[in-house]
Amino acid sequence: MNVIVNLILVVQMLAALVMIVLILIQHGKGADMGAAFGSGSSGSLFGASGSANFLSRTTAVLASVFLLATLALAHFGNSRPAGAGSVLESPAAAAPAASASAPASAAATPASGAAQIPTK
To answer: What whole-number distance in Å separates Cα of residue 50 and Cα of residue 68?
Structure first.
């Protein structure tokens, strides 16, 4: 089960990183390739409007992969055995056991950083 969750987490992180790069590569609606490189030619690697279609479709596919990975992680995170309890309960359950094993004399003495007021 941990292998599946780790695999989904890696897919989600890779999808997020590639999606960030693709969004940063895309030009705005008013920007064109000619203004960016100094000439008025519209010939680019993907054609006149091919890069916008390719990048936007790839971004949409990666957004879908990211959403599905997020839903899968939420499902696996919520499907615990009935007696397991919450993730937040496990550190709280360990804290009283640690304080119960401390000696009683340590609780009675003041903290070393506390200011002691002299009595007259």
So the answer is: 27
Task: Specify the DSSP element, H or E, that contains 71.
Answer: helix 50-78
Contacts of 56-62 with C-beta under 8 Å, sequence gap 24+, read 56/26, 58/22, 59/19, 59/22, 59/23, 59/26, 62/15, 62/18, 62/19, 62/22
Neighbours of 79 (CB within 10 A): 8
Prediction pTM value: 0.53
Domain ranges, residue 72: 1-24+53-77
Q: Which two tokens stand for residue 61?
A: 């596919």
CB atoms within 10 A of CB 69: 20
Q: Give the total number of structural domains in the chain.
A: 1
Task: Spell out the long-range contacts of 1-6 with Cβ–Cβ below 8 A and sequence spacing 24 or more.
Answer: 1/76, 4/76, 5/73, 5/76
Tens digits of per-residue pLDDT, 41-100?
A: 454 555 555 566 888 899 999 999 999 999 999 999 887 665 566 556 655 555 555 555
* In contact, 22 and 59? CB cutoff 8 Å: yes
